[in-house]
Structures are given as C-alpha cells and as structure tokens.
Design goal:
The complex is a heterodimer. Chain A is an alpha/beta fold. Chain A is 27% helix and 21% strand. In chain A, the strands form four sheets. Chain A has a six-stranded mixed sheet. In chain A, strands 1-12-11-10-13 form a five-stranded parallel sheet, with helices on both faces. A four-stranded antiparallel sheet of chain A has the order 3-9-8-5, with no helix packed on it. The N and C termini of chain A lie far apart (48 Å). The chains are: A alpha/beta, B mainly alpha.
C-alpha cells in the first residue's frame, strides 16, 4: 500500500542540494593510517574499553563493552594494533573525551568468531535480534545515536502497533540514506522486518521524501515480495524526517510533549541506516564498524558517498572526495540545518555521522543580526507550533522561566526559525541555551 | 588554513529573505498608488510624496547620527513611512505638512522608542493623527478634484456616503480613483495590485486585509443605509475613504500587528469594526487612522492571549480532563 502525504505543521522549503552527490554510488573509503574510536558514540553511558594498548585486534572484534543499560558495544573496524587509549577532541561533545586509537595493519583481517546468525527471519527469535543489536553495538544512525536494543524493548505498558522506517533524509545535501535505499533496498527491508520482529510490531511503514524517486522505485520493487509493509511518500519539506513530524504526518498522531516519546502513541521510528546495519549484523555477523557518510558541498571537488570505517578522520574522507576546492569556509559535521561547524577536520567519523559538508568561503558568511521586526515568520515555520521569537527574546535577556513558559523544552532544534528569519536572528541558538539552562536547573532541584 | 574555518551555530543555511528585501517589496507595492495619485491629482501630489520621503529618510539619518546609532536608512523602512504618510494626505496640503509629519513619524513615533522593531504604533499613522490634531483645516479641506486639479468646494464623497448611504459614484470611478480624496487612497485598482503583490510574495498575511475589509463591507451592508438594515453599499464602504490603503499597507505593518495568523485575523476584524463605528456613529468622517492606531495598541494584548496550537497539546488537554481540572 502506498500513500502520498503532504500535510505538515510549519516547516520550510529548503534548497535540496542533493544533486551534488545523489548520483555517486557508495564506495569504500579505504583504511586510513589511524582510527579514533570514542567511548561516547551515542546517547547514554559511554562504553568501557576491554582492550589495552599494544593489543592486536581483528575486524569486528569487540574493543569496548556497553557501559550501562542505555549504552552500546564498540568494535574494531579493521585489524591492527591498539596504539593508545587517551583523550581526543570529540567533535559533538566539543571537549576532550576518552578514545581508543587503533593503528590499522592494512590486512583488514576479520575476527574468527564473526559469522551469520541467520539467513532469514524465520530462523531467529525476537530476543535473539535484540541481543544481537546490543552485541553488535547498533545505535540509531539518523544522528541522535540512541542504542537500538533499548528502543526495541519499550516499557511493558506501551502498546506499539506501528513501526516507521525513516528514509526521508530531509536535511539538504545529505544522500547517504538515499544511496543505501537505492543500492541495498533488500537489506534495508530485511533489517526493517528484523526491527519489527524484535519489537513485535505487525505494521511497518517505509517513509521516503518524494525527491528520491529512484529510491522509492527500488524500495517498491523490493517490497513487492513481502506482505504487510507499506510505503509513505512524503512531500519534500524540512524537517519532514523529524521523528515527531513523521509520526504526525503518517499516522495523524501527536507525540506528547517532552519527555513524551513516539512509543507513547504506539509508534517506533528508526532510520534506514539502522535497519541496514542490523541486516548486516544478522546476515554476515559484522557489527557496527562502518557506515555510509556523504562528503559533499560546493567546497569539495568530488562530492561522494563513502562507506567509511568508524574512526576515520574527516581529513582523510575529504581527501578521498578530491579535496577542497579553493579555501574552505566552513566544515560541518552533519547537514546544514542541524549539523555542527567544526574548527578542525582532524576529528573522526562517529556512529551518528551521516555527512560532512564543506562550504566555500563565499557561502560561509556571517550576516549582521538586526532587531526583530515581529514578522511572525518563525511562528509559521515552527513545526512544533511554538513562538520562537518570544522564547529567544526571553532567553536573550536571561529570563529562562519565561522562556520555559513559552514551551522552550518542546523545541526540536530543527532550525527552521533561524532559517526563515529575515533579520537573521540566531533564534534556535537562544532557544538551545534556554533549554540547557532549564535542564540544569531541573537537575539541581532534584 | 584550519584555524580560519568559520564556526557558527546551526543552521548553516539561511533563507534569502531579508528585512531590507521585504521593505523594498512594500515600496514597490506602493508605487502603483503613488503613480495613480500623481496622475489623478497632478504634479503637486508628486511634490508632497517626494518631500515626505526625503524628510523621513533625512530625519532617520540625522537622528541616528545625533544619538550615535548606526544609520539604517538602507533598510527602506523610512522610505515606506514617508511614502505611506504622503499617500494619506490631501493632495493640496502645503509642502511643509509632509516634511513636519514625516519628521514626527520617524523621530517621535519610531526612533525614540529604539527604531525599527521597537515602535508600538505605526509611525505614518501616528504622524497623521498628529497632523490632524495640529492642522485640522489643512488635513480636512485641502482636497482637489481628480484630473481637473481644482480645489474642492464640498466635502469628500465619504462624508456624504456616511450620512446618506449614497456614494454618488460609479463602480468604475471608484476603482480608478476618480474622486476627491487623499493622494494614494482613491485608486482601488492600484492598491489592489500592490496588495496582491505583497500577498503573493508572502510579505503580508492576507488575514489582516481580509478581516478588515470583510468586516467593514459586512457592517456597511447591514448598517450603512440610515433608517434601514441590510441595504447599505458594501462595496462603496470599502472603496471610499482610506480603508483599502489602511487594510493592505498600514494594518499589515509587522512591528505593530500581531505575530500569529489568528491574531492577525482578529486585528483585521477589530480595525474593521472600529472604522465602522467611527464612520457611522462617530464625529469624524473617517475612522481608518484611529482604528488601526487603536489596534496597534491592542496588539500586545492579542499576542499575549492568541497563541498558536502547539504540537502534542491534545495530550495535555486530555491529561487535564482526566485529572478533573479545568480545561482551557
């Protein structure tokens, strides 16, 4: 069954910029001279190293155990020797953070115990899939990197009836999910069905934005061999792929305000990359040690989609994408709407890294910030129905309680308000600061 | 190389909309009315327009220089103020009227409160109200007949319409602006052209003019004919006087109108009602200026109470109901 969906609260039409890299097939990026694997790859507790410096490791061998319930294992992406376990600069935490540094030997030798668990889903039990997801270190690859095994075991009192697989990829420039769906449609659907089986959900809906017709076609083809899977084709509009936005558009249900989660309205949402990683783990035994990363932007010579080993330095991938064209202005980890600008490209790929975006000097300009003219465009653009201008105005004056009363905590930080603001006010930035302040005050009260 | 990478918070992509661009669109949208006014009422009205714009821009620059703030005349907002004020003046006013008016608008109504974004009433309308109070004769007598450019001996058609319910004009005359009135208010076609341009370009919200003109038309139809109900001239009600220019260009001023879509509809309806009351039962022949000024003052109140429906609010409502609490 295929449904076409246009409805959406707020949002903005953004230039897709997908044409730069959407035609580039996924290619293996290669083995760099050094891999840096942070213990903090995901939301939750950091992993705990189970190797020591000078240890020899093989591809797929576990090198760090989950550090708690909400945590994930970490594996060696290639064979080599552990050079050090030391703090390195973490591009998302924006501070020094403990990492395992691996020096590859170039042989790419797999671990002996790496073997397929099953060749089809009939031969594997739901609890086996959940256990495998945990052992294979699988986390959500959409960006937030929430441990998948935890997502697959929602609280008992939640009755989940629908699983959404998110292939909207609404961030401009990024094409990693697009290429995975196009090139690996069968594995994506295998992984999707594994996710559904593991969580006991009967209804599965594939969600894709209509700006990826070839991926839609590939998924449609692959879907024809299964019953029970549906396809939702959504009009391209940012932030279409936001979890809450997707649940509302596809199912007409609204996730409760924070701390509400999709499972509160009977829905689980995963990214197509996550399904693909889970399929690999089941079918080949390979844990999550590599992912597809789009290296793109007007600032790189040859925009590409790479299968990159976790821990690969961004500088290596940019080099593989033909290097910079001219002097780069800005390098962004992730997409242009929610990604993080980096001060250095000597940082590694994380489990949640979907893209590296390089903007040229001309594109990376700071525009002067003008006073708010109260045009209200941020309100019309907010997919959460908030009033960004008031939240940010209060936050700017340090009035965090007022900011909270304007529902600052509901903000999903998509950046639509800052994007649309004609006065170029950094609205979402102020709202993020308000959220951080409110969160720390709540913690202090506890 | 790397220490020169720009590090700024997300998003790293911005829309091409700028305050300057939006204001320029408003200037463009006002040009048809300015041209029509010049044709209808002659070279004198062009002089009034130019004097008004020049005074507005100069006042802004001089004031900002004097208080050592960055000069922001290139955002076009002062041009709009000057243009708007001129278009709402009688064509035969002495040239010092727009000069003083625009200076008042920029300095007193806008800059002393902090400039663009901080003023709480529409500067052009505040200046107009000031001019009516200060020089009432010029502001209510200096009319010209269209095309002949002769001074008008009688009152404007709106005065007669308010009293009798008869406009005494054909629809074509009203659409083309062939009636005595303020420079830019009479040619409905020119105003409509500019207004639609702003709506299509997503500069203004259609809800304000719709609410305003809809309410005024409906009210005029019901109460517009003395001694009878439901026989008033709905079209004449919105075509005469300054309702059209007010609804599309004054009430839609971002800074002084509500920020939410629903709030803007209320603003339009409120301005329409007040205009109607002043026209039919008040002492002034025209109520547009005071109606919009009043709604400017009510805008913070509207923004306080009219809030958008937030995502997930259904759950909160349900929870409140389940807890037996009051629902809002």
């Amino acid at each position: 069954m295929i449904t076409v969906i246009k409805k959406m609260i707020g949002g903005v039409p953004v230039p897709g910029k997908k044409e730069l890299s959407e035609k580039s097939p996924i290619e293996f990026a290669g083995i760099p001279g050094e891999l840096v694997l942070f213990m903090s790859q995901h939301i939750g507790a950091p992993s705990v190293a189970s190797v020591k410096p000078k240890d020899q490791v093989k591809r797929g061998q576990i090198i760090a155990e989950p550090g708690g319930f909400v945590s994930a294992a970490l594996h060696a992406p290639t064979s080599g020797v552990i050079k050090a376990i030391e703090p390195r600069y973490h591009p998302v935490l924006a501070r020094m953070s403990e990492a395992i540094v691996l020096e590859p030997d170039g042989k790419h030798e797999p671990a002996e115990n790496m073997s397929p668990t099953a060749s089809d889903l009939d031969g594997i039990l739901p609890e086996q899939i959940r256990k495998l997801a945990r052992e294979a270190g699988i986390v959500g690859l959409g960006g937030a990197a929430f441990p998948t095994s935890v997502k697959l075991a929602p609280p008992e009192d939640k009755h989940i009836d629908t699983y959404l697989l998110n292939g909207s990829e609404c961030e401009p420039y990024l094409t990693a999910d697009h290429r995975v769906m196009l090139e690996q449609a069968d594995k994506v659907l295998f992984g999707f069905r594994a996710l559904m089986k593991a969580s006991g959900v009967k209804r599965g809906i594939m969600c894709i934005e209509d700006n990826k017709p070839d991926a839609i076609e590939a998924i449609k083809q692959a879907m024809s061999s299964y019953d029970g899977l549906e396809l939702a084709v959504l009009s391209a509009r940012y932030p279409r792929g936001g979890e809450k936005q997707l649940v509302h558009a596809v199912l007409g249900r609204e996730v409760p305000p924070p701390p509400g989660l999709p499972y509160d309205v009977g829905v689980l949402v995963s990214n197509v990359g996550t399904a693909y990683a889970l399929a690999e783990a089941i079918l080949t035994g390979l844990p999550l040690v590599e992912r597809v990363v789009t290296v793109t932007g007007e600032g790189v010579a040859k925009p590409s989609n790479f299968k990159a080993l976790l821990g690969t330095p961004l500088s290596y991938l940019i080099e593989r994408a033909g290097g910079f064209t001219g002097t780069p202005g800005k390098v962004i980890l992730g997409g242009p709407m929610m990604g993080r600008a980096l001060k250095s490209i000597d940082v590694p790929v994380l489990k949640g890294t979907s893209g590296i975006l390089v903007l040229t000097k001309e594109q990376a300009v700071e525009e002067p910030i003008l006073p708010c003219v109260k045009c209200g465009k941020c309100i019309d653009a907010c997919p959460m129905g908030l009033q960004p201008l008031w939240i940010s105005a209060h936050a700017e004056r340090g009035l965090m309680e007022e900011a909270e009363s304007f529902r600052a905590m509901d903000c999903i930080e998509c950046g639509c308000c800052s994007y649309i603001c004609p006065a170029k006010r950094p609205l979402v930035q102020w709202i993020k600061m308000a959220k951080a302040d409110i969160t720390s005050r709540r913690k202090a009260q506890r | 190389m790397e220490d020169r990478l720009l590090v700024t918070p997300a998003p790293h992509m911005k829309s091409t909309k700028t305050v300057q661009g939006l204001m320029l669109d408003v200037v463009i949208a006002l040009l048809p009315a300015a041209i029509a006014g010049t044709i209808l009422f002659g070279f004198r009205s062009l002089l009034v327009i130019l004097a008004s714009v020049a005074s507005a821009v100069a006042s802004e620059a001089i004031y900002q220089k004097a208080v050592k703030r960055p000069v922001s005349i290139n955002d076009f907002s002062a041009v709009i103020t000057g243009l708007l004020l001129a278009l709402t003046l009688p064509p035969d006013v002495p040239v010092w009227i727009p000069v003083i008016g625009s200076a008042f608008a920029i300095v007193i109504a806008k800059q002393v409160f902090g400039g663009l974004g901080y003023n709480f009433v529409n500067p052009a309308l505040a200046a107009r109200a000031f001019l009516i109070a200060a020089w009432p004769l010029h502001m209510t007598r200096d009319w010209l007949n269209p095309m002949t450019y002769e001074a008008l001996s009688s009152a404007t058609p709106l005065v007669g319409f308010n009293a009798t319910g008869q406009a005494g004009l054909t629809l074509t005359q009203m659409l083309l602006g062939q009636r005595p009135g303020s420079i830019g208010e009479t040619c409905i076609l020119a105003l409509l052209l500019g207004g639609l341009y702003l709506i299509v370009r997503d500069v203004i919200d259609y809800r304000i003019p719709l609410g305003y003109l809809g309410t005024l038309a409906l009210g005029t139809w019901i109460f517009g004919k003395p001694g009878a109900l439901f026989q008033g001239g709905a079209l004449s009600g919105v075509f005469l006087g300054g309702a059209f220019i007010g609804a599309f260009f004054m009430a839609t001023d971002y800074v002084t109108s509500p920020v939410t879509q629903r709030g803007r509809l209320y603003m339009g309806i409120g301005a329409g009602l007040i205009t109607l009351v002043i026209r039919l039962w008040g002492g002034y022949p025209e109520g547009v200026t005071y109606a919009i000024l009043f709604m400017n003052l009510v805008t913070p109140l509207i923004d306080n109470y009219v809030i958008p429906r937030y995502y997930g609010s259904g759950h909160d409502a349900k929870a409140r109901k389940a807890a037996g609490g009051e629902t809002r």
